[in-house]
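re: ur question from the group chat, yeah i did fold both. here u go
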Amino acid sequence: MNRNIFIGLFLYLIIWAGNSNAQDRVIEKLDSSFTNYQQSHIKEKIFIHTDKEAYMTTENIWFKIYCVDGISNRPLDLSKVVYTEIYDSNNKPVQRAKISLSNGFGIGSFYIPPGISTGNYKLVGYTNWMKNFDEKYYFEKQIIIINTQSDKSVNQEVQNRPIIQFFPEGGSFIEGINSKVACKVVGNDGKGLDFKAVILKNKTDTIAKFSAFKFGIGTFNMIPDGSSHYECVVSLGGKKIMSVLPSINTRGYSMQIIDTVAEKIGINIESKNLEDEEIYLIVHDKQLIRHAKHLKTNKGHALFSIDKALLSQGISNFTLFNSSGQPVCGRLYFKPVTDVLHIDVQSDSVSYGVRSKVSLDIQSKDKNGPQTANSSLSVYKTDEIQLDGSMHILSYFWLKSELKDEIESPDYYFGKPGAELISAADNLMLTSGWRKYLWDDALKAGKPILKFIPEHEGHLVAGRLTDKNGGPVNNRNVFFSIPGIQPKLFNANTKYDGSFVINVRDYYGTNEVVLQSDASIDTSSVISLSNPFSESYKIKNTPPLNIKKLNVNDLNSWNLNAQVQNAYYGNKLRQTFNHDSDTTSFYINYTKRYLMDDYVRFPTMREVFREFISQAYMVRKDGDIQLRIGTANGLLSINPMIILNGVPVFSVKKLMDINPAQVKAMEIVNRRYFMNNRMEEGIINITTNTKDMAGYEIEANALILDYEGLQLKTQFYAPVYDNKRQIESKMPDFRTVLEWAPELITDRTGNKKWAFYTSDQPGNYIGIIQGITNKGEAGYTTFKFDVRN
């Protein structure tokens, strides 16, 4: 008897151990898939702080870029370029620029041309690396542009048509299972609407009544019956709108979070028309899996419990997997953020006269004490059009950048925690769906295909080399030349499909560039360039601007201010500064340099080489003139690389035909040199006195075009009034943006003093400081004052 009991117990333990191992293997697979996905998908986030929210045509948009690691929010030195664009409501870019990044920070500006129409626009920012992933996570910010000369009438009014959406908790309506449902009602401006609603079953039976709680979101509970029809009647300002609820599933899983205990969260799981099985709950944030547990459903029911202390601050993803390891339902949960940067600013007054000095004492700290912060400061005049911005760096990095949908008043969720805020945050999580797509991607076999590489040294010029029939030309060098007084030359080799990527480091401004392949091999190949900006991006619905709500007096004042500033300060407002880029030749050092004015001027280049260029020798081979570089060990074997004003020359005969009177200097490198993967038998670098190449004709198949590199820096201009003569100057000062300081950095004690001057414009002003520490703690603050005559 005892022997039978022992054998039975032994067999039970073997089966239990086998099941336990199988369950552990599923969790290990999910953990491994998640970790591998995160490691292969380094995530960048972009935040852009603009100097204000609304602009008049002919004004400048000033902005600062913060690029951080998508997991830690720490400034990330991965990409060196951010692509910025302004899109109109028709999804057309009206302005574009490539902004240089240094250690995760960049500064730029846009001039708003007079031909742009009045309306809402989207400012968009992303890196080349971000183009590998969902463009819905590009940075987006809505801005207003006003053109008083626009064809659009200032009396135009936009009808606010409500949009009604339903979000069952867990992702689906399941027949016979009690579901919590969020209802979101917004206008076409994206703002939540205050409403009351009832749920009707089969048009007559009222089963639920509810109303908007915050930002146009309300919730109700119902047990759907698959044989019934459900409608929601929404009451808005005396009008009633009917909307049909989503379809009901006859089988599946449902998830409900129970957040009624201070220390723990309950997760109630129910299933319908499914056999009991092992299920797995995975809870992760943007960095790690924080909780992994398995249970077996009992008559379609299971209850998990998690300590809140295990959850990180911000958004957590709750995902349920079936016994096959497939995601079946889930939802998001928000835990208040405490790792924030606190910025305090004290002004020396709350009221100033015109042309007066404003002095600020700024301090940055976190919960552990003073912190150095990299910040930006904007001070501008407010009115009925120009309001305080609704998007700030703290809420963007912790909330907006993690969700695909628009969020009304995101800063609200970072206030002092309380019952109302917790309920509003949970409603927001319900309406934001869950991340099944992330797990679908993570569980895919094999490494992801990443088409776009990070620009970790500078802007990458991508293109393709094809033959005259359109076929790819592989293993061929393509050269990118910037002719001029300080020419630059870059190159890259084509791949099997003819594609190439050239790193054009420190290339700023717009210049005429020359792209060509090795003409000594063929002169019929064709070079085409790829568009460096995103071609798949489409803006989400941009609400039309309700022009009728704009104050006509404010519009007239804006127009006058812009005209005066452009008339008196236009050149200073748009003055660009050359970037201090490296002007050293790519080969660093030359063997010998010849300044032509130091020698007798000969009428032909043949005589120049024959008479005094001692490191280069003319030879004949197969009836053609060629050049050889001489070294201590004899002549190098083939033609050297010949460069004329930064443009490679592949024909010695054509070089001999240029006008030597226009040659300024010649540098000789008498050693073998590797330029990327190409070995050169020495270098002859020739520069001329003018840009016309001394009569040299570039090969016919070369691609010559004006190419825009990184944006040249434009300096924000503001007058200084620190003496009587300046204060009494007759020059008008109609600035409404009093200060834009994109590089405001507090010291090790967290302190910074700053000062600026008011203009001739009385009114109410707001100052906004946004910043981040090297630990990824973000924060912002505002201060207000008025200016009186």
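okk and heres the other one u asked abt
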Amino acid sequence: MLKKALIAVASVIALLLGFVIITPLVVDVNQYRPEIEQLIQKNINGSAKIGRLSLSLWGRLAIEIDELEVKDAKGKRVLAVQGSSINFPFISLISGAPELTLRLDGPEIYAIKESDGSFNLLSLAKEDSKASAASTSSTSEPEAAPTPAAEEAAAPQGLAPIIVASKVDLLIENAKVIFSDKGSGLEQKITDFNILLKDVSLGRPMDLDIWADLNTKLDTISLEGPFKMTGEINPVLKDQEVQGFEVKLESIMDKISISVPETFRKSDKVTTQLQIEAFGSPEKLTLKSLIIKFHDLVLEGRGEAILAPELSYSFNFSQNQINLKTWKEILPPLKDFVNEDMKLSWTADLVTDHLKTFKLNFKAPENDLTLVAGVENFSAPNINLNMKSTGLNIDRLLPPSKEEAEAAKAKPGSSSSAAGTGGNAVSGADGNAAQQSAAEQAASDVDAQLAELKNNEMLKQMKAQVGIRFDKVTAMNVDVQDFILKFTFNDLKAVIEPIKLKVFGGQINTFASLNLQGPRPIYKAKLTVDSIQFKDAVESQLPKFANTIMGNLSLSGNAKGESLNNDLMMKNLVMNGDFKILDASFATVDIVKMVNEGGAKAIQTIKEKFPKAPLGSIASLGSGEGKFKEVSSNFSLAQGVMKAPNFKALSFPGKGVDINGYTEIDLLGDKIQADWNVIDTYNKTGLKSVSLKEKGVEVKEILAEPGKPIRFPIKVGCKLSEPCYKYDAIPGHFWNIASKKIEKAAGDRLKAELKKRTAKEREKIKKKQKKVEEDLKKKAKDFLKGKKLPF
């Protein structure tokens, strides 16, 4: 019985061996090529061509294809394979561990995106097949709900051992991928592209090797060089079920060169490496380790993402401290300002829809900065940001370019001064240049940019709380100390309370708000300025005030306005308050010239009336007597016009003159209009000492009002940068005073003369009366002489 069974088995084996040996000899598989080509063409928009086929069943199933070519409907090549093979050893099937080897030799893929956006690879799929699939899906009847028994039968029972034990090897050699974007001009070539995927299985670790030569160009941007990646993929099984895959990948890209002209340049000597260790499943992704190395940068990351039933994640990333000074060859823009060590590091913690913590540290000579930030809810962000620094020297950190340095040297107003004032003036031509520069800067429409941003739904819902404290900041040659800022943003409205800083030798405090809801930003501010050097502020940040008054400024006021554009900000600014400037001098108004010319006009007025009368000489203000101890007024500012109705300028004791009156300055139109009274408190002009002697009449202090110092009116007009002075009111003013004094002096002399004459007449009468009395007494005595009276 056993013998018969062995004979039967031997007969079967012999038949199989005969089939394996004879079939490839008598069956020509190439006769099926046309049918295979037609089957392919039936399902694509294009054509397919298959080269010679060969079949072998000797110990294995071996199929080889000498050539395969696929073209699109336009006849352009899409895919070409020089040779391919399938190898399936029978012994692996008998052993319960099937092995399949797939090999592609020299495949070429041509991916082309046309100017109209069409993609040749996508155009291969036929529309009718897509529609048929969609129709079948939409018209299919809904399946009946499964019964409990069916659900139990359908429950996973684990993979069959033969599936777990099976493996596939995939080898792609000398592949070439060419991608072309006709619209953007991007050309990308990957040559010598090789993939070795070994032991692809659900029951054992899989090895992965990928290497290729890259060559990508877009205009002047290029990327080229060898790329290599190795890795291991390990399936994780539990009860014969795949729980997920552990992945380890490592890529070395040191020899790749990348060039973006004037922006980025990586040579083949710059370290570029990637390492990933992770676990993935349909429910979870765990990043055990991520390490990216580039030059001296090392970026590390780890974390986990839960994919089902709802997405949640938690990741941590950190970057070591790098020195930007060593990046100048990689980032050419750094060459213009990074000449010293600049060290930067950061860490970040990401949780579901949150940036839990972001911390950045920056250090450089005379510079340090710590930034800590957090964001809640990325779709409607709530941002918390805090920045601290013991010192920031922006000028040292970002020195001006050669062009900026030359422009600063040529800056107008650096040497010219108004005579007698010691102040700097911007001439009319220079003012035009400044206005032209401002116009160029205004080309960037900030209002329009903000108008676009406010339509962003995320920005509408965004909230922010910002705190900044810098012990010292140096920028544009300006030193700022104790800079404190608290800022909140909500519902497209920003509130700043407060900004505090010490600058220009004084302190500034500001409470402000900004509303972005309207067509243009609306802002309000309450400003307090305490003892800043206004000249320094003007030269640094306030060029429109260059032709006003320099000195130690204190100011308080309330402001509001609309627009953040350079050309509209000053025009729309409305402000009311008061100011005081100590140790003040006018930048363009020549006080010395104005007073001396006014005094000369006063003397001329008297001489015209009394040409022969000696008036004596008068003094003139010296070049250093055009400064003031204090200049003050309340003020208003609107449409770029500043009005100071109670303008007062008090001179230093014993020096100069005082001024009061109305002052109006058009900061946009470069105009000034002032009605001033010049008050010579200390008689520096000598006008109070002027006296008049005419026909025996002397009038002392003929130009001064009784008990008051010399005072005379002057109007200032024309351009603020080139003021002119009007003395029209001086003659009438002084003649009015002089005529009253002359009239009074003449009247006093007449009264004195009358009084004198009356006294002489009385004396004559008395003398006459006395003589009459004496004569009467004598006659009476003579009459009675020698006569005897009865008594």
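fwiw on the second one: The longest helix spans residues 729-784. Residues 583 and 629 are 5 Å apart (CA to CA). idk if thats what u expected
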